[in-house]
Amino acid sequence: MAKKTLKNVTVADAYLAILADRGVDYLFGNAGTDFAPMIEALAKAQALGTPHPEPITCPHENTAQHMAIGYYLVTGRPQLTMMHVNVGTANGMNGLLNASRGQTPMLFTAGRTPTNEDSLKGHRTLDIHWTQEMFDQNGMTREAVKWDYELRNGEQVETVVDRALSVMMSDPKGPAYLSLPREVLAIEMDEVTFDSPSRIQPASASNPNAAALDEAASVLAKAEHPVIITNWGGRNPKVMPALVELAENYAIPVVEYRNRFVAMPRHHPMFAGSNPNPFVEAADAILVMDCATPWLPSQVNPPEDCKVMHLAPDPHYSYLPIRGFRSDIALAGSSELGLMALNAAMEEPAKSNKSVIDRRRKEIADKHQNLEEIWAKKLEAVKGQTPLHPAWISDCIAKISDADTIFSKESQLQVQYLDTSKPTKILNAGASSGLGHGMGVALGAKLADRDRLVIGTHGDGSYMFNVPVSAHYVAAEQEIPVLTVVFNNQKWQAVRGAALALNPSGYAAKANRPPLMYFSVDQHYEKLVEVSGGYGEQVNDPKDMLPALERALKEVMVHKRQALLNVSASDPT
Ligand SMILES: Cc1ncc(C[n+]2csc(CCOP(=O)(O)OP(=O)(O)O)c2C)c(N)n1
Question: For ligand 1, atom 16, which residue shows the shortest CA distance?
């Protein structure tokens, strides 16, 4: 088996060399005094031309974490971020929570303040080295990671890196946290030898248990009113073809509830919209696939005799403290493999149900046609509205994009107007709804695929959560121009909706502008992108939307500089 040997290195040198050997392309970082040995190691690797994850300077941790997520969503490879001790870890928590609930394999690392007061290389040299020490720095992250550890010495670097990566990359995937004490990173070693490639590989994706799968296949095949509900199934690009085949073969409607990706092309006749309620209340079989919350029990529940089946690597979502959805059959395995296996296993039992399936095919296609008409009518009704309606903004965006465009979604972008015929193009990393994810995701996606058009869409509230000065800076520095569209409704509509729903005739409902939801200053976000040399425009007239997008597109694709449109937007109705 192949081995590699490094001579006269520090622990930091060895750590970076092993990560690069394992296919980690970038280190998304926000540095501090704890980074001293890491910076020396990176500079050495750059000077000598030895393999290392390329450092990307992120002025805010939120940018770093979400760039890692965006890069993963496009490449499928494990990611690396590094922050400054406890404080950088705290700033990175929003991204970590999104990575955690989004099952993203990200090695989130941070330095640890030196513990030696005056001995050992790397010892304390600043007052903050006392005040930044915590009894349990890793504890902050523990509830959100699959694994955490603190690097103790140079001899264990390979084991620690491989343990982190193999745990992260095994299903259900997820982040890990590693703290890196300054003195340990600075240790000098005569020689480090490691396996290349690694001898610790992640677990392969698994097929669900065969007997349970047959049972599920029989229930689904014989059902009269089955439905498939998913949320993030579309994150895996192989799910779309498998799901389309299953839905087509057996005429099963697919609902994407609160979806963060797209598993079913929006114009497919078996796409049944995003509202599970009418399907759930009529169902005799429900397959919930990659979806922690398939419906709201306060609104709807399946009939008593309806069989509910779940398909996911961890179909009980054990990371969630409370989840009481019925689970008659729980299929533990990869959704892609599970869907393909169901497709094959349903062939035989479906034969006796052929007439029902044929009739249903027509019913579901009619329902879908109805959706198409609703979408078209809506667009027609709102296209001249001022402020601009999200449907019109989305339709104009559709005209300058195609099936290969990548979208980062943190806005009221209406996906049904876009070309969703190809998998994994709408990326919404807000699995924990930690706002401020979209700009980093767009940048990470563009870094992973520089030739593609990447469009980031954000509400004005979300845009500000992104620490936009940090994101625009990285776009300029790394020459990764993204087209950003801000749906500016001058408020936090989601907060408004929740407040008014709880107390429909309360004081907030009667107030002209209830507190803590409106932005009363007219913010010129189009100028913020100019700080980093980008192109910005404000759009107030619906007739200007498409021409403005075309100008912005030219800036991004031809002149290779980022662009931002600050669009005066209404709320979707
Ligand atoms: C880090 C974080 N803080 C607060 C929230 C709560 N929150 C959810 S939606 C929302 C409003 C977002 O505003 P905007 O992006 O403008 O979209 P709108 O709701 O107006 O369509 C807020 C503040 C959150 N999800 N994440």
Answer: 461
